[in-house]
Amino acid sequence: MAIFNNHTIFSSWRCADCDAEKPTWASINLAVLLCSDCASIHRDLGRHISQLASLQKSYWSPYRLDLLLYLYANGSNNVWEYFLTDPSRNDHNNQKHFIKPKPESAITPTKERFIKEKYVDKKYASRGVDENQNDLDMQLFACVRTCHVETAFRLLIHGANPNYVNYETGETPLHIAVKEGQLKQVELLCIYGANLHFINNKEESAKSICQASGSTDLLTRILEIEFEISDRISWFLCGKMPSHDKNSHFLIPDIVGSQLTDKQRMVIKKYVNQNNELFCSISQDIFDEIERRTNEKIWYGETKERHEKLGSVVNVISSFLPLNPLIPSFRNQRRQKLAKFDTNAFVYLLVCHLKETKRRFYCEDIETSIGRSIKQQLRRSQKSSEKNYSNNDYEDYASVPSPESLSRLSERKFVKRQSPLQNRFGCDTTSNRDVEILQNVVKKQTETINNLSDVIISFSREMKVMQEKIDRVAEENATLQNDLSRLRAHVYMKDTQFASQTNAFNTKNTPSFSPTNGPSSNTSNISNTPPIFNTTYSVQRTIIAPQNSSNTFKGHISPDNDYMHNLEVNEKYVSSQNVQSQMDNSYVNVLSEKRISTRNEKNRPLKDGLSKTKIVRFVDDLTSAIRSLQTELLKPSPFVYPHCEAVNVVVFNILNSVPKSLQRKTVIVLMQKLENSMYKLESICSNPNINVHEASLAAFALALAAKNLFLTCE
Questions:
Q1: Which residue ranges are recorded for the region named Disordered (predicted)?
Q2: Residue 32 pairs with which residues in a beta bridge?
Q3: How far apart are CA 162 and CA 156, in angstroms?
Q4: pLDDT at 398
Q5: Spatial separation of the C-alpha atoms in residues 589 and 554, rounded to whole Å
Q6: Around Cβ 701, how many Cβ atoms within 10 Å?
Q7: Which tens digits make up the pLDDT trace of 599-616?
Q8: What is the CA radius of gyration of the chain?
Q9: In sequence order, what are the residues at sequence separation of 6 or more whose Cβ sits closer than 8 angstroms to the Cβ of residue 110?
Q10: Is the CB of residue 12 less than 8 Å from the CB of residue 4?
Q11: Which residue has the higher pLDDT, 87 or 579?
């Protein structure tokens, strides 16, 4: 393994998630290159989703880096963005085209949501048609024979099993790839969890097949993969790797000046007594924790300088391994507790783990292993003592001291011989006290750092929640604006419909009553006025019938009883839309005085004669007055007093124009309805907060009452 420092090869490539230039991170199992912002989101996904590594500062095997660059150059990201590269491929689950984030897009929630949909939900990945698990496994078993690594990568993404077993031969895809000498296929299968030690029906493993074939490069890589965890621990501890070609598979550093306490001895005793399955899971957790600490250090070092120049705050990332839903809860707790180990404790744990791994690999007894470690410690102490003794003896021989100096020298030698034992058994109380003080200081500083990290994480979560609330309020505001626009369009459409109905009322009625059979000047003016009313009624000249489900009138002129029933139905609909008026201003008082005066005028004798042309003219005047009133209502600050007064004057003129000879029971009821409609419109318009829709309904009811009165007096 080595550090890859060739920066020029990435200059032409971009981040797979936001198209940022010069990516500095990579996801090994996803085969994509990433920028630092997107890499922070991949870290929070967990290594069970994305195995993150730095391109310049992490430790890469040349074979693995070659595979990653090969897959990315051959369109590995197109597999994840299959439905984004070509929107015409969208299926019923991806009808809405999602816009890919840009480099300047917000990390949360824009980039975070896109990355989770892309890799966790696989929302944009290509999907095979009617491919079950067995079909995927068989295709992978056949594909590893060839050099088409990108096809095998697509099959593994969709769930193909890298440990699929052919029941005829007992071989897995790894056996086939080793037989065919496909190094990239072997690397890809091992990344996705292929078992190196699985034996076929001939009791051959992938390693034994490779040894028989004589492929040196492939055998070297299989050995590196077999000891990947122990090699990674050795590199983390001392920056060196064992030489597997020299049959040296473990490199365990020595811990200088460390003494085991009784509690630590008990922990190690329990640690070495674990079964192999549990020990393997512990090894995986330790490996993931090493990768987390390494990536955290690299990521902070990479972004700290950039954020300091910009004057911004470094994004908070997880200080422990994210939860993995595929493993039990107790193991997730154990993985998080590994983050609480300080540097010294974690190093000691790694050394103990390396020793236990070596013991299990060589199948040694526990007592033999412990005895060997004790002997090594004694041997090192003896060598240091012999070195001190030899130096002292040489000084004795060279100086040729006097008897007095010999006595002083013997005392000095005794003290020097005694000092290693004192240091070993902790007799130097002064040094032990200093060590305890330093340990307490370090412990307090560590607790302070952990508390600050928790506070920063909580602040980050609160900021995320507030950002989500802001986005939600913005969306609701946009929705309300759209609803308001649609409501205005709906009101305008209904006004247009009612305007056409009132025009039809005038043009159809005028010929039967006008001496010249032509429209009056008022009618022509009304037709040129913009549409105002908002209603769903259809008013026609010769149609008066019960109301159907669509709020339109159809039928013919019915007898008086049915006709009165229809009028009562219409009156109930209009009265249901009325609101209580608030008579609290001067305008209301003026209208009230007008109402009292008009009631007194009702007692005056009516005219004996009636001209139909005059009534038609009154109806035209009423329509014009209502239209002007509605136009004023649509203004931001309406002043409706003159228009409402004009409507009242026209209504009183119509009522006073009805002769006594025509005032039978039906006509009197209609006159009363017309007067009530006038007062209802007046009450609505007197409200300081005028409701345009209710005023339109009241105006329409007034026009309908005038029309019914006109038809009855015909």
A1: 377-403, 504-529
A2: 27
A3: 7
A4: 35
A5: 41
A6: 26
A7: 444 444 434 445 667 767
A8: 46
A9: 101
A10: no
A11: 87
- CA neighbours within 13 Å on the CB side: how many for 59? 15
At position 199, the amino acid (one-letter code) is I
Residue 349: left if φ>0, alpha if ψ -120 to 50, beta else—which one?
alpha
Whether residue 53 sits in one domain with residue 102: yes
Question: Alpha-carbon distance 481 to 476, whole Å?
Answer: 9
What does residue 21 show for φ and ψ, rounded to 5 degrees? -80, 155
| Closest by Cα among 135, 124, 133, 29 to 78 | 124
In this predicted model, what pLDDT tens digit does every residue of 57-76 receive, in sequence order?
A: 898 999 999 999 999 999 89
113, 145: one domain: no
d(CA 319, CA 523): 81
Among 118-122, 472-476, 548-552, 589-593, which stretch is predicted with the lowest mean pLDDT? 548-552
Q: Kindly provide the residue ranges of all beta strands, DSSP E only, lying in 444-577, ordered along the sequence.
A: none
Beta strands at 52-54 and 25-27: parallel, antiparallel or unpaired: antiparallel
**CB count, 10 Å around CB of 186?**
27
The dihedral sign for the CA sequence 435, 436, 442, 446 = positive
Which pair of tokens denotes residue 167? Answer: 């029941």
Instruction: List CB contacts of 19: < 8 A, sequence separation 6 or more.
Output: 100, 102, 103
Of 95, 120, 145, at which residue does a domain stop?
120
Contact 341, 348 (CB under 8 A): no
Residue type, 616: V
Owning domain of residue 83: 2-120
Q: How far apart are CA 657 and CA 614, in angstroms?
A: 8
Note the pLDDT of residue 48.
Answer: 92
Pairwise CA distance, residues 190 & 512, whole Å:
96
Residue 256 has a pLDDT of 64
Closest CA to 158 of 183, 184, 189, 137: 137
Asked if residue 256 belongs to a domain, the reply is no
Most confident of 122-131, 314-323, 420-429, 621-630: 621-630
* Residue 412 CA from chain centroid, whole number: 73
Find residue 25's DSSP bridge partners: 34, 54
> 500 and 615, same structural domain?
yes
Task: Give 695's pLDDT tier (boundaries 50, 70, 90).
Answer: confident
Contacts of 481 (CB under 8 A, 6+ apart): none
Is 634's pLDDT higher than 90?
no
Domain boundary among 226, 245, 279: 226
Q: Is residue 22 part of a domain?
A: yes
